[in-house]
């Protein structure tokens, strides 16, 4: 009789690991493909490319709805608009921050998303972290900083862009978890609501923003068969990246997603070493990787222990009390796909 809970826990752990690996593989894959597309073939229109990603994701949600994996659900327009606002500011803010800041300060800004996400969870969700959980996050930040932060220079407009990028990205990731819990939405259902709106807004905004950032027009780009194939490949992988992000944040939290997300940074550094030469990998980078991985393992153990990371009060009532199993049912659909 005691085997059932253990079996259920093992199944959940396996699904958590599979969800995370899905996100890691697709995220690292899209970085490599986009790097080749932009550096080798000169397609520097990042915001327009992101719009195409969401167009492809929208088509995927249409297919999933037709197959029955996305059931009719409700997401109020004000919540949808807030999510789109945070998400689009995140995309624009990250692109502008990378343009206006040094690579070192850009990496520091990305690292600061973890404490900002922690702050949001503490204030909005009444989450309490144990001492070990806090220390493990510090170790992860230290390790990734050693790996990635090199030259650091900042100016006023670059600092403002970084602040906008950090807060909007943290709010967007928090809101994914928030909306799934509040409205009992699975990952597919939430994507079905948000992807079309993001695709439409970014298609309108993207070409103008890219022209402002690069002084080049996307319609005058010299498209070739190979570059179009890379764009299609990028959009295809992006479907998995968008879906896996929603699945992971739904199963974990925005903070866990950020902490474990730096594993992707390390993998990109390692893959860059193998594909693009040895100059990017040296002793202090390897040391930083070891520190970061040790911190991630420590975080996983510390946060999973009793009291490691717990909610002091349930601050988000569900809008669907008549069907308390709605979120678990939506999660089961995620797992089936």
From TrEMBL:
Extent of Polar residues compositional bias:
315-330
Where in the numbering of this chain does the Sugar phosphate transporter domain appear? 25-299
Against InterPro entries, the record matches this protein to: Sugar_P_trans_dom, TPT_transporter
What Pfam families would the database entry show? TPT (PF03151)
Query: Which organism does this record belong to?
Result: Tetracentron sinense
Where does the sequence pass through the membrane? 20-43, 49-68, 80-98, 135-152, 158-176, 188-209, 221-243, 255-277, 283-302
Q: Which residues form the signal peptide?
A: none
Q: Where is this chain primarily localised?
A: membrane
> Where does the protein end up?
Membrane
The record describes its membrane topology as: Multi-pass membrane protein
> This chain belongs to which protein, by name?
Sugar phosphate transporter domain-containing protein
> What are the UniProt keywords, alphabetically?
Membrane, Transmembrane, Transmembrane helix
Can you list the GO cellular component terms from the UniProt entry? membrane
Residue segments, region Disordered: 305-337
């Amino acid at each position: 009789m005691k085997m059932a809970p253990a079996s259920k826990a093992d199944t959940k752990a396996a699904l958590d690991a599979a969800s995370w690996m899905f996100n890691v593989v697709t995220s690292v894959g899209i970085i490599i493909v986009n790097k080749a597309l932009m550096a080798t073939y000169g397609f520097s229109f990042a915001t327009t490319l992101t719009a195409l990603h969401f167009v492809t994701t929208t088509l995927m949600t249409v297919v999933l709805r037709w197959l029955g994996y996305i059931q009719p659900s409700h997401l109020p327009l004000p919540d949808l608009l807030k999510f789109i606002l945070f998400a689009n500011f995140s995309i624009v803010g990250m692109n502008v921050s990378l343009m206006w800041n040094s690579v070192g300060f850009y990496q520091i800004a990305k690292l600061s998303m973890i404490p900002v996400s922690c702050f949001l969870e503490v204030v909005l969700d009444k989450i309490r972290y144990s001492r070990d959980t806090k220390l493990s996050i510090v170790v992860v930040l230290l390790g990734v900083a050693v790996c990635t932060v090199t030259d650091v220079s900042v100016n006023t407009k670059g600092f403002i862009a970084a602040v906008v990028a950090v807060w909007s990205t943290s709010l967007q990731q928090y809101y994914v978890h928030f909306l799934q819990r509040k409205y009992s939405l699975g990952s597919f259902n939430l994507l079905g609501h948000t992807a079309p709106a993001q695709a439409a807004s970014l298609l309108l905004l993207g070409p103008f923003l890219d022209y402002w950032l690069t002084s080049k027009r996307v319609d005058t780009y010299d498209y070739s068969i190979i570059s179009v194939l890379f764009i299609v490949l990028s959009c295809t992988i992006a479907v998995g990246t968008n879906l896996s992000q929603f699945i992971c944040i739904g199963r974990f939290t925005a903070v866990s997603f950020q902490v474990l997300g730096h594993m992707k940074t390390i993998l990109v550094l390692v893959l860059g070493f193998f594909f693009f030469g040895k100059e990017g990998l040296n002793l202090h980078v390897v040391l930083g990787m070891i520190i970061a991985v040790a911190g991630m393992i420590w975080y996983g153990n510390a946060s999973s222990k009793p009291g490691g990371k717990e909610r002091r009060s349930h601050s988000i009532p569900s809008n669907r009390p008549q069907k308390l199993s709605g979120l678990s049912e939506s999660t089961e659909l995620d797992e089936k796909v």
